[in-house]
Amino acid sequence: MKLKALLLFLFVPLICSATDINVDPSTFKATYEGAKDGDVLLMEEGTYTGDINLPDGKTVTLKAAEEAEVVFGVKFRGSDASVTGGGIIMEGLIIKPNDSYFMDLTYGDIKTITLRNCDLSAINRCFLRTNNEGHVIDKIEMDRCIIHDCGDGGYNFIYPKHGVREVSVTNSTLYNYKGGESFFSPNSMNVDIDMLFTFSNNTVYKWSKASKYAICNTGNKVGLFSEYTFRNNIIYKAGVDGQTPNILNTTGGYLLAEKNLIADYGTYNQASAADTEISDYTLADFGLTNIPFPDPENGDFSITSESPMATAATDGGPIGDPRWLKNLTNAVHMNVTNSPENAGTVTPAKADYEAGSEVTITATPNYGFRFKQWQDKDGQILSTENPYTFNIEKDMDITAVYSSVETYTLNINKSGDGAKWGNVSLTPEPVDGKYESGTSVTMKVVPNSVTSFLYWNDGSSDAQKTVVMNGDKTFTATFDVVPFIVGWDFSVSEPRGNRPGDYSFTTDNTGNLQLYEGDGKTTNWGASTRTFGGIERNCIRRYTERANMDNPRYLVAKFVVDGYKNIKVHSLAALDNACVHKIQKMQYSTDGVNYTDLSSIDMGNGTESSQWMVLEGTLPEGLSGQVYVRWIGDTESGLAGEPSDSDTEGFYLADIVVYADNEQKDDHEAPKLVATSPEAGSDVASASGNVVLHFNEKVKAGSGDVTINGKAMTPVFGSKTATYAYADMGYGTECEVVVPKGALTDLNGNAFEGTTFKFTTMQRPQPEKKVFDAVVAADGSGDFTSVQEAIDAAPDNSSVPYLIFVENGEYDELVLIPESKPFIHLIGQDKEKTVIKHTINNGGSSDVGYEWSTNNPQSDNYGYSSVVEVNASDFYTENITFYNSWGVDNQSGPMGLAMYSRNDRMTFYNCKFRSYQDTWQTSSRNMADRHYVKDCWIEGAVDYFYGGGDVLLEGCTLYNVRSGSVIVAPCHKEGTKFGYVFSNCTIDGNELANDNKTALGRPWHNAPKTVWLNTTMKIGIKPEGWNNMGAIPALFAEYNSMDADGNPVDLSNRRTEYEYTDGDTGQKVTGTCKATLTDEEAAAYTYEAITRGTDGWNPRKLMEAVSAPANMRYDAASSTLSWDESAYAICYVVTDADDKVVSISTDTSFKPAEGTCGKFTVKAVNEYGSLSEGTTYETTTGINGAGSETTVKEDIYNTSGMKLGSAVKGINIIRRQMGDGTVKVIKIMK
């Protein structure tokens, strides 16, 4: 269906009694401004542009003249709330503003905003945004409209600060709002207005980018007795795959939802509902697995009279936009497929037509394929045309046939001192890293201010080079570096304040750029791309209101100058209006308070620069530490012209670079050993593990080997560490580590003096054989089908581990472990497939999602706190995902705990914890309650690891899921010894979180303590690192933080001053806290110091691995699979090819059931329930394929054909000579 056809032929024109006035693009604006209340402007065909306001005190209709195609690019703008009482009606217009906002208004009360028979597109953010509170819109109405391809810039489609009394959307189609948020979302509190929201007979496709949004997203911002009606709609798919935005997010109200078909979308989220009535369809009601729209991406949502959806509405008509109904009297069906299947896409893929109709089908090849021809179901060629138009007379199965095209890879390498900052663009860009044969690709060096391009690998030095792809190709571009400290080129717009350098010479001196108000408060600049003198640059705008130009805003960059000389600060400046001080100064300071003039420029008289102007200055020699450079207008110089009172400063700054020569010198000091792990004298080390040497600087290999009990070890170097793996030392074994002098040096070659220290591996007695005390299996094959049942069956007051094995599956339940049940060991089969989940939050009655709140007496969650709550001591778990469905699925608050661990000696290994806000709360019961968390994934966005106790997290990933995430919010009691200790952890996140706004944490209450040791930061952390909240931290500090490449992170801008408002007195409380640890302070945070306490607790022994089963073999005569015993194993878990548990036994053999698959994996279990690595045995024909034949001879080979004495790790080829003379060959994996 064509949109123009919809607009011109399917709509019934309204009959107006008001005055009709003909206008064209040249007369429109003047006529509009002079129109009277009720006038109808009949718009002749053409494109209309410009800005207008809503009428003042009158309602005007803009209507396309009969048969006229009116492209309405006009934008509504208003900045005066005294203009009031107007309304606008638009009919038959193609609204295409190509702007972020169609209506962006500061205005008084609005009578109506009505659209009928309109097509809306190219609205990057909001159809309507109003900017002033305290006023009302009586009604927003859209009927028979097509709204499509909007929202690329985010925001909500209708986003008013005005109160809105009524919204009505009927008989319309909304699609491809993929980057946008909600359809309707108020931007202010108007709880005194009980609004009406009607959404009926609409087709919605790919609307909204995330689960936390909704079609109607009123939350708690409107009256509790608002009415919401959703009727006869088809709502299908979010704008982003995997997301499920809701239809309604609200608090209170009356909801009537009937006859809506909703697929791959969310639900109605109504907290504290006044009344709810829902009677909607599912796909199954129509016998469907998806909604068969012919071509939804391109706006064809046709359904035929043959479809059950054609009569499913409340009035017996079609659901969805009724204009898409095609009435057929002699229906024929067409089905179109691709060959090969992955070679392309076809539109429509399937459709019904009236026999004899003209049909056009189009094939779009995927990269690497060419369209060849159309074939019928018998393989006969129908056409080689694409698109192909024909008349369909009967049911047809058509195939689009493609031929493949060779594709090749183009690799661009960079070398030279400037390689890190050099860049090469490719035009066109590759698709999945490949180019089709014959493609001409232009490689172009992208210039910047800190590199100079030298040459390509063939010796040529042209900055642009073209290559024809007739094979895989590799080119190397060599760059030199222009010596510098830090620079900003603003190639991306965010962040618009508190911004580290866009490039820096070293990773631990990244600088910071910030915009300040005249009173010293921080604010954000405007991001822009501007052209002056014919040169376009990414830049920032400093804007000060005209009334404040006597105390203007200013920009400050700060960076460390130690080790540099000849420091020159370069920048480019320009203006585009008269509201700019004529003289612009560059100043410097060593304390950020007292500034000295460095240089200045005269911006001249006028309203726009003719070119970018250089503003630069050279810093005096002898400066040290952190230096501040400020860009500020000279208030005594006057303005560049005569601005109006409403103007704001139009000053632009680009290409900020701090050039300098490096004068780093060798300190001639040997590296100092700060700490070792295990520490000297330790008796809790693993028999297989790592020796880690921590130094005060980066080290490298020198001459000589580092040994453990005389055996050389191989180093892996980190930022300030050298790590040596060792294995199979045995238990209760004394180990001597010898580091000879010169085996390690610093980067300048200064040799470490060497050291020798000893530790002892842990004692490990041989445990008794036993199986798990309980097995949980969702399919009923275990002892229990729920985790809580297994917990309930555990004995009270036990002093020995109670082992619970949880097979793969999703367990939707709340789990509560009471204090009376210590020593629960909860062992999952696979953390990716063993999931304990539930929809639960801790919100109040005004929060969205209150029906799932632990505080709602009407909710099944009432009285609980978390998906899993552990009140008992000595808890251990591994290989399980703890999943709060509210947080993950909605990607929003309120609080939604996945884990609440409330006692001492709690251990977590190889688990996942997933939510959004407050994922995991740790014990605040006693300040010395201890947790040990090893190799876990903790995910969230807001305070997602919080509470108290001494908690050591080693090797964990903290995964952030939004911009501005905050990781920890501790509330440690005064006197807590260690608090939260993150050791060798990784901070990571999705694309939203990688914007340099993530915070390490904020102090919740009391005297919070958190340290981050040897942290790898894969995403950018905000320069100050920490946020304020409700306390002054006792310690918030880092040591040896690294980026993803192991380079040190700049900690010079970390927060050391904190403040909060006392809730009782209302007074501001301030305090300081150190941001970094010394080598000696960091060395105190050892495993032994944190975990041992007074009872010698050693949680690492719980996860001390036993060896994987070895020498897997199959005896055909007995049809038995067997293996060698693993030392210290209590039993073995056997799974089949589908990861289904088929045996848990103390035996070292297993007899498969008749006819089962020939692939089995066996894992050994230690005395605490922890699983070993698996060993897999696989046959090519299945275990039972061997029957009862006797093996006469068996030989083992590797994959190179070499005969082996016994099976080795990896793939083994087994050649068996059978008793009947046949030979069988199988492969096994060990």
Structural key phrases:
single chain; 1230 residues; Pectate Lyase C-like; 8 domains; 20-stranded parallel β-sheet; 10-stranded parallel β-sheet; globular
Short description:
The protein is mainly β.
Describe what this molecule looks like in 3D.
This protein is mostly beta strands and 1230 residues long. The chain folds into 8 domains: 3-293, Pectate Lyase C-like; 334-404, no CATH class; 407-481, no CATH class; 484-662, Jelly Rolls, CATH 2.60.120; 679-760, Immunoglobulin-like (Sandwich), CATH 2.60.40; 770-873 and 883-908, Single-stranded right-handed beta-helix, Pectin lyase-like (Pectate Lyase C-like); 923-1093, Single-stranded right-handed beta-helix, Pectin lyase-like (Pectate Lyase C-like, 3 Solenoid), CATH 2.160.20; 1104-1229, Sandwich (Immunoglobulin-like), CATH 2.60.40.10. It contains 6 helices and 109 strands. The strands form 21 sheets. The protein has a 20-stranded parallel β-sheet that branches. The protein has a 10-stranded parallel β-sheet with strand order 71-72-75-78-81-84-87-90-93-95. Strands 73-76-79-82-85-88-91-94-96 form a 9-stranded parallel β-sheet. The radius of gyration is 35 Å and the shape is globular. Residues 1-17 and 1180-1190 have low confidence and may be disordered.
SSE layout and pairings?
Blueprint: H1 3-10, E1 20-23, H2 28-34, E2 40-43, E3 46-48, E4 51-52, E5 59-64, E6 70-72, E7 75-79, E8 86-91, E9 94-95, E10 99-106, E11 110-116, E12 119-120, E13 123-130, E14 136-143, E15 146-148, E16 158-159, E17 163-164, E18 166-170, E19 173-177, E20 196-200, E21 203-207, E22 214-219, E23 227-231, E24 234-236, E25 246-251, E26 254-263, E27 268-271, E28 275-281, E29 303-304, E30 325-326, E31 331-339, E32 344-347, E33 350-354, E34 358-365, E35 369-375, E36 381-383, E37 388-391, E38 396-404, E39 407-408, E40 410-415, E41 424-427, E42 435-436, E43 440-445, E44 451-456, E45 464-468, E46 473-481, E47 484-488, E48 503-504, E49 512-516, E50 522-523, E51 526-532, E52 535-542, E53 554-560, E54 564-575, E55 583-589, E56 596-602, E57 613-614, E58 617-618, E59 626-633, E60 651-662, E61 673-677, E62 689-695, E63 699-701, E64 706-708, E65 711-713, E66 715-717, E67 721-726, E68 734-739, E69 744-746, E70 755-760, E71 774-776, H3 787-793, E72 802-806, E73 809-812, E74 815-817, E75 824-828, E76 834-838, E77 866-870, ...
Parallel strand pairs: 1-2, 2-5, 3-6, 4-7, 5-8, 6-9, 7-10, 8-11, 9-12, 10-13, 11-14, 12-15, 13-16, 14-17, 14-18, 15-19, 18-20, 19-21, 20-23, 21-24, 22-25, 23-26, 24-26, 25-27, 26-28, 29-30, 31-38, 40-46, 71-72, 72-75, 73-76, 74-77, 75-78, 76-79, 77-80, 78-81, 79-82, 80-83, 81-84, 82-85, ...
Antiparallel strand pairs: 31-33, 32-34, 34-37, 35-36, 35-38, 39-42, 41-43, 43-45, 44-46, 47-48, 47-60, 49-50, 49-53, 51-52, 52-60, 53-59, 54-57, 54-58, 54-60, 55-56, 55-59, 61-62, 62-67, 63-69, 64-65, 64-68, 66-67, 68-70, 97-98, 99-100, 100-103, 101-102, 101-104, 104-105, 106-107, 106-108, 108-109
